[in-house]
Amino acid sequence: MEPREKRLVFPFSAIVGQEKAKLALLCVAVNPLIGGVLLKGDKGTGKSTLVRALANVLPEIEVVDGCPFNCNPRNPLEMCDSCYERYENGEELPIAKRKMRVVDLPLSVTIDRLVGTVDVERFLKEGRKALQPGILAEANRNVLYIDEVNLLDDYIADSLLDAAAMGWNTIEREGISFRHPARFILVGSMNPEEGELRPQILDRFGLCVEVSAPMNPEERIEIVRRVEEFHEDPISFYKKFESEEKKLTERVVKAREILPKVEISDDLLKLLAETVVNLGIKTNRAEIATIKTAKAIAALNGRRRVSLEDLEKAMELALPHRLRDKPFQKPPQMRPPKPKDDKEHNHDHKHDHKHEHKKEEKNERRNQGSQSQGIGNLEQNFRSSEAKIPRIESKNFDGSEFTGYRSSRDVSVTVVNFPKGIPVSYVPPKGEIRDVDFYNSVICAVLNGKKPPIRLDLNDLRVRVRKAKAPTLWVLLLDSSGSMAVQKRISIAKGIAEKLVENGYIKKSKMALIVAKGNRAEIFVPPTKNYWEVLEKIESVPTGGRTPLSSALYNLLLLAERERRKDKSLKVRAFLITDGKANVPLFGKRIKDEIIELAKALRKKGIELNIYDTRGRGINPGISYVPVLKEVANAKVYRT
């Protein structure tokens, strides 16, 4: 069965291009302690194919026969508590050989399924507490693959990456205390269009590679040919690359043997440390992952000493995703390290830096000149300016049902009898039973006088109460009418909008952008987690024309209604950035009457409205509808 399984997987050596991704995957195959690989790229670029193919070239491993944790029988430091106890008692552990495999982590996984929980069957039959191993147990000494890792719930990602960093999974729950090794090759893939990873989670991946489709027509033709040939006759296609696959396997085996003997010079260590400091990278994982990767590259090439070229390749894999320590911060340009005695290179670098700096100053002056010349035109384009925004306090989401989470969580919801979130309690079920808390159900049965073997009935059953992250949508309503050009209010407004996008990114909320200018408001960006797209649209919005405030509020209501049809639990927050003026009716009524009606609808629909009033605190002639929205929609108003 094993050979056929191999043939049905697209061969690793048959994949065209993607050399960086291949190297990164081979490095973590040699040393899983690097911390795993994150493959970032558009859909259809071969990320999943690379991971599936990797398992094919990995060697067989020796495991303790019958152990559910795939413990290493030759190394007591890689044994679970049970195997270690047997080893300490002098028992000869039975050995079996097993092919490494790819273990998939579904996005819907619960914390119990991930880390392990009580073995309910043994508890019911014998009344003894025993562990039911989770996915981390299956993944030990295998490949753990998370597709769309950026969509994984935070608390699942935190537990997973902690285990990956420590190499151990410790279980302390329901009276069970147990630990087992969790040394897997962690591979995640994601499409940046569907949202970025939190920096804290991104840093936990040792290596990160951008995977993109080749733009060379010849390479693309070759990809099509190979895929078609594989689909027509996978067995014959695999045989064509069988020798190359065996060579890769032998290369990995040899690299693992060499790895403990690979050394790196103090000069290269110093060069790496200086480069990391100069790039402003704050985490120590940068150096650790780079050194481990450089040693793995040297071992893959059969060498016992790390070269400058090895270090350069390792830095390209381990550093780029750590260059930003704030959301959407533009990372410094990464240059390959050079020895200090290269004076000519240093002189050229300084000259290039000065030239680039002068060029930027010249472009800035040109842009400022073009903006001043545009005043008086129908439309102008203003850049955003730095803006501070106060902490946003939720009004509609507080109370007994919703409470604010810390960290990246925006709004939490208490869910009963639904397998999503962190378990916090248990209750008797009402209606359909979906999320049974077996352990506490058994406890209730025992308290009711039942003895093993226990048969549960409806009176014994308990379902879990969990805290889960409620889905949220943040809608930015940007007033970009002609009145916002006065005193460059639109620049401040754009600055506020960009800060809100950064906050939404941290909270992992979907974002949408509605722009009000001219005769009607328009949805510039529909709900998305592609925060870069929202930022780019904000920066490119022109300013000028009339103020269709009613149209913006109406679009907000329609957008919220449409998104709630997809998910009834969706919470909507709206952020209106405006000077409060309006001069375009929506339905032909008086503008004030329209705004009052729309404001009532917002409050009725539970849409939280926050208003950033760009008029400042001085004298502002003209009518502002901000006070009306504050009173009728119960909006929170901030003065900029």
Protein described:
- The termini are far apart.
- The strands form 6 sheets. A 6-stranded mixed β-sheet has the order 18-17-16-19-20-21, with helices on both faces.
- The chain has 640 residues and is of the alpha/beta class.
- Among the domains are: 34-59 and 100-211, Rossmann fold (3-Layer(aba) Sandwich); 262-319; 412-469, no CATH class; 472-639, von Willebrand factor, type A domain (Rossmann fold), CATH 3.40.50.410.
- It contains 22 helices and 21 strands.
- Helix 2 crosses helix 14 and helix 10 (217-232) crosses helix 11.
Fraction of residues in β-strands: 15-25%
Strand order of the largest sheet: 18-17-16-19-20-21
The top-level CATH class of the domain at 472-639 is Alpha Beta
List the quaternary state of the chains.
Answer: single chain
- From the spread of the alpha carbons, the general shape counts as globular
Number of strands: 21
Q: What is the first-to-last residue Cα distance?
A: 69 Å
* Poorly predicted segments: 1-7, 342-377, 392-409
Structural class: alpha/beta
> How many separate helices?
22
> How much is the average pLDDT?
78
Let me know the CATH homologous superfamily of the domain at 472-639: von Willebrand factor, type A domain
